[in-house]
Amino acid sequence: MNRRRLGSLAGAAVLAVGLLAAPAPASAAPAPAEVPAAEQNGGTIVHLFQWNWDSVAAECEDFLGPNGFGGVQVSPPQEHVVIPSAEGGDYPWWQDYQPVSYQIDNTRRGTAEEFEAMVATCRENGVRIYADVIINHMTGNGSGTGSNGTEWEKYAYPDLFGDGGAAYGNDDFGPCFETIEDWNDKWEVQNCELLELSNLDTATPHVREQLRRYLNGLVDMGVGGFRVDASKHVPEADVEAIFGGLNEVPGFGGRPDVYHEVYGDQTVPYTAYTPYGKVTNFDYKNDFSGKFAGGDIAGLVDMPDHGGLTSDEAVVFVDNHDTQRYTPTLTYKDGDRYHLATAFMLAHPYGTPVVMSSYDFGDNQTEGPPSVGEVDGNPAGWITEDSDCADADWVCEHRDGTVAGMAAFRNSTDGTGITERATDGGSRVAFDRGDRGFAAFNAGGGTWNLTATTSMPDGVYENAAGSGSATVSGGQVTVEVPAEGAVALHVDGVCDPAECDDGGDDTFEISATAHTNWGQEVYVVGNTDALGSWNPTSGVKLSTDGSTYPRWTGQVTIGDDDEWKLVKVDGAGDVQWESGGNRVGPDSAPVWRD
After folding, report:
1. Of 440, 543, 550, nearest in space to 490 by CA
2. Which one of 114, 261, 367, 391 is the catalytic residue?
3. What is the pTM of this model?
4. How far apart are CA 35 and CA 22, in angstroms?
5. End-to-end Cα spacing for the chain
6. What's CA 196's distance to the chain center, in Å?
7. Residue 399 CB partners (closer than 8 Å, separation 6+)
8. Which of 148, 358, 416, 561 is 20 to 30 Å from the Cα of 201, by its Cα?
């Protein structure tokens, strides 16, 4: 957790909504009488950042479960502060990381009943819910009313569970009441205030008891895992005491699967937290994303244990909700290269992967999720709208054609290492996953025509990282890997040759994201007659309107080897080409490259 700034803004901002009516209090996390058994699909987690509970449930049923994804990280479920505006953003996303209580009855993402229904639906579809939880702190400066109507002050939280019982007072905070200044002093990092947020004294029995009560309420409901925000700022002994007291997860068996947010350094290394769960590996993100951004990917096959974390200890990612805003290397705004990096992460056996799924925040790092506005009688402020992957506001990286099939690839190759490999310079690499999978990645320009040795059984296999299929025969496979694209085959993806996707020309609806100036239109232009033979105004003109902008849609025909680009044309005929190399092959959701 690098940036959850509130400071003195919080008091005035939250007081502005302090007079809204509050719903009647209810229990924090009502546990069902019986939680049915569940079986997790696999190890790939998708972070549906800021999705509401109903939308998460629908995505588990409609897409994640059927495609082999095994987990969903959801945004914090507890009552949060409500901040109409801060740092240029309306109801900023980071308000949800400042707890007012441990009641889950009402947040901007929904109610306790909707949360419980989401957990049940996802479990039924083999998807484990990982709740993002905050144990380090409560709110920042000031006072106000939370999303469920609970009044709060920085060091006073009178109703943690909605029953008028447990509370936090001044004695539950500290022991240091100053903001962290010396990041080389471990005691200060773990005991003083992070960004002026009220630091819980997690060494006290009372605080530990309330945190365990909150977490166990979620576990008893069926939540199967936790992403622990800002764990680095909680002393290790306190983490052990809190999470060592959790119940077993009904149905899944065993205690929750926990991963800690730790930005490791010499003061607080990653390995300090591995006895208590997995750890987010920011060193991996920095190295991996940096090499993909530069196109130097061949060496990533022999990936080191970044930060001293073994594969079983590391949670890996190309970006997350913090880094895509404040320290971006690769994000959804980088289009095909970003999706290629995500597919590679899923093909490589190192770590537990988390795939980011964002909303489009444009240039405003603080802006909250798309919303339906305020709802009468609901104190949570702007209420998050239902997520719609056909809507320009929701990016849905996990549904990209290069990424969507790779959870199944990872499941099929689980337990295997990297064996055979092939390279063509630093920008192209292919490898086997034992005798269960083969993957090839092309971060260079032009198609990579590759014949490689493989241990996979003879057969015809669908491409899990795109369209088309490939044949393995006699220990060899021949593939055409498009620029900025991948081919991934696995033994559970065998297809009947008569029914296989032949990878030929495909007519489909494209939905391109492009911000334009007044009077500009967007075209798809390429090297085929259907795409205008590189004549911008002879290409396929896309359309948009006020309800879908900046998403531009239209029907296009693009084959696996066809080269194309997005262009903008204004009323005077002036043409603006997107940057980067030619796109190759189908892509139903391209993002304009500046």
Report:
1. 440
2. 261
3. 0.83
4. 30
5. 29
6. 27
7. 63, 389, 589
8. 148
- Residue 64: helix, strand or coil by DSSP? helix
Hunting for tokens 């080269």 — which residue is that? 563
Q: Where are the domains of the chain?
A: 45-280+359-394, 416-494, 506-584
Which superfamily is assigned to 416-494 in CATH?
A: Golgi alpha-mannosidase II (2.60.40.1180)
Task: Return the amino acid letter for 569.
Answer: V
Determine which one of 96, 105, 116, 229 is catalytic.
Answer: 229
Q: Which two tokens stand for residue 426?
A: 């630093």
Distance CA 81, CA 71 (A): 27
Q: Which residue has the tokens 């990872």?
A: 410
Q: Which residues contact 574 (CB under 8 A, 6 or more apart)?
A: none
Separation of alpha carbons 314 and 230, rounded Å: 16
**Residue type, position 40, single letter:** Q
CA–CA gap between residue 151 and residue 314 (Å, rounded): 39
Q: Six-digit token pair at 545? A: 């309107």
Enter the tokens of residue 172.
Answer: 């539950």
CB atoms within 10 A of CB 502: 12
Catalytic site residue 105? no
Tokens read off for 267: 């003061």
Name the CATH architecture for the domain at 506-584. Answer: Sandwich (2.60)
Tens digit of each residue's pLDDT (9 = 90 or more) over 278-311: 999 999 999 999 999 999 999 999 988 889 999 9
Q: Under 8 Å CB-to-CB from 265, ≥6 apart: which residues?
A: 183
- 446-490 pLDDT per residue, tens: 899 999 999 999 999 999 999 889 999 999 999 999 999 999 999
182 is catalytic: no
Within this chain, domains 416-494 and 506-584 share the same CATH topology: yes
Q: How far is CA 12 from CA 5, 86, 311, 380, 417, in A?
A: 14, 10, 46, 16, 55
pLDDT tens-digit readout, 491-506: 999 998 777 766 555 7
Give the pairing type, strands 540-541 and 469-473. Answer: unpaired
